[in-house]
Design goal:
Blueprint (H helix, E strand, L loop, with lengths): L3 E4 L13 E4 H4 L4 H12 L7 E6 L5 H14 L4 E9 L2 H10 L4 E5 L11 E8 L7 H11 L4 E4 L10 E5 L2 E6 L3 H10 L2 H9 L4 E4 L5 H12 L7 E2 L20 H8 L6 E5 L6 E5 L2 E3 L1 H11 L13 E4 L5 H9 L3 E4 L7 H5 L5 E4 L3 E4 L7 H15 L3 H12 L1 E12 L1 H14 L7 E2 L2 E8 L2 E2 L6 E2 L4 E5 L4 E6 L7 E11 L7 H16 L1 H5 L6 E2 L1
Parallel strand pairs: 3-4, 3-5, 4-9, 10-11, 10-12, 15-16, 15-17
Antiparallel strand pairs: 1-7, 2-6, 5-6, 8-9, 12-13, 13-14, 17-18, 19-26, 19-27, 20-21, 21-24, 22-23, 24-25, 25-26
Helix pairs in contact: 2-3, 2-5, 7-13, 10-11
The structure holds alpha-D-glucose-1-phosphate-6-vanadate (VG1) and cobalt (II) ion.
The site of cobalt (II) ion (CO) has 8 residues, from loops.
Length: about 550
Amino acid sequence: MTIHSHPTTPFAGQKPGTSGLRKKVRVFAQPNYAENFIQSVFDVVERAPGATLVIGGDGRFHNRVVIVQAIRMAAANGYGRVLVGQGGILSTPAASHVIRKYGASGGLILSASHNPGGPDEDFGIKYNIANGGPAPEAVTDAIFARTQTIDRWLAVPGEVDLDRLGTNLVGDMTVAVIDPVADYAELMESLFDFAAIRRAVAGGFTMAFDAMSAVTGPYAVEILERRLGFAAGTVRNGTPLEDFGGHHPDPNLVHARELYDAMMAPDAPDFGAASDGDGDRNLIIGRHRFITPSDSLAMLAANAHLAPGYAGGLKGIARSMPTSAAADRVAKALGIPCFETPTGWKFFGNLLDAGKVTICGEESAGTGSDHVREKDGLWAVLLWLNILAVRGVSVDALAREHWAKFGRNYYARHDYEAVDSAAANALIAELTQALPSLPGRVVGPLTVAAADSFSYTDPVDGSVSAGQGLRVLFACGSRIVFRLSGTGTEGATLRVYLEAYSATDIDRETPAMLADLIAAAEAIAGIARHTGRTRPDVVT
Ligand code: VG1
Ligand code: CO
């Protein structure tokens, strides 16, 4: 085997964010850019000689180029085997499952998730460890440190036909091109009552699934249409496209508007759902009833025991800090612990590995469980379908019943996108300074009870992650959280998370319930003064 050593010099800014390294395609396409990052991964991550590496992506533009290069580099760096999805495709949860199932030492997931794709759009690389989950901060910090000193990358010559299933050799390393869907579909069948869902479908239950021209299409067609019997055409936009058809593959009320409108129409199907670029997010809309991701986590947790995979009950629930406290109320009722972590799935890994929690979720449309170590869009859809099939109720009825029992957490997230980075940093710095003086301040009808910068101490390994978002808590129980996104590729994105709870008033409109909080967010943080924006770009 001939190993070529290619001299290189470091690039600034190869620091993984909330979920891997994300940059514009033109940044990744520079000579040595992707290679430097991948070599830095291979230089620092733990593995035995001859270890297995999983490689897959969401099918976006530039995927194939990087996958073939990563395979040549893996062979030169002592891996014994690479498992790669056919066509370079693996959804993020499927990649997590493949890592676990085949005992791989880790995986490279090539995705920028919900960010748009194409020559002028976004690309990303994320490393997952042997548990199938995103590398924890200690590992991403070590990778970043390595990118700052790197002086060579290694590769062997070789080509791979990503489209042909089967095994090849690159250098001395085996490359197995695998069916991206089969293992994952089998896992889903082991967790859920497919027979009950099939009976509901035979009885007339209908759904619409928007794959947003992204990676979930083949998974959804196989599972929903072939195995569960939903009508052909149930899966819309089911062919993965390199530019996602020009859309943002972000399943929210802005980018999945067509699905939302279909679900609000008089002839709406019973159930609507969508997933994002890499298949780890989910959007749930019942006939005439939108479910916030925070509520979805709570409702799934309250009913999960109806699915065979969770019949024994839940060990605990974890949610990211900005996610609403709806799940906390369910945990309390179930008598199980509820953990509050920083934003990003990597913080759930230790809790899942230690058996402290079974279900996790984020307000950004991510829900998942201990079946893999990533959030999982289709998993959430199937758990909803299982629950609805067993209970024989509509989404709306289930939601109302839930709120009647637990009260309702009205919730919204306001995003100010592509804000000038200096302005966004100034807003956060000024607000951080003001935190100690906020308690007692009266803003309209609201009084600040407490304010802090969220810091997390991992209960399993004791690691501390500080500066994870600014929290302003009001005496009435309402809350505002401010933080900057760690997944964007242009300027800064300011996220403002708004939450108001009512134990009894469960049938109000969300904007009305949040109006005082929206005014308070402006008064406290000076969003317009700092950013020049008077309204958010995206409300979800
Ligand atoms: C966003 C979400 C976060 C999610 C992350 C990755 O991060 O807020 O909840 O875990 O995206 O999701 P940020 O730092 O931009 O707020 V995905 O579907 O991009 O892998
Ligand atoms: Co995603």
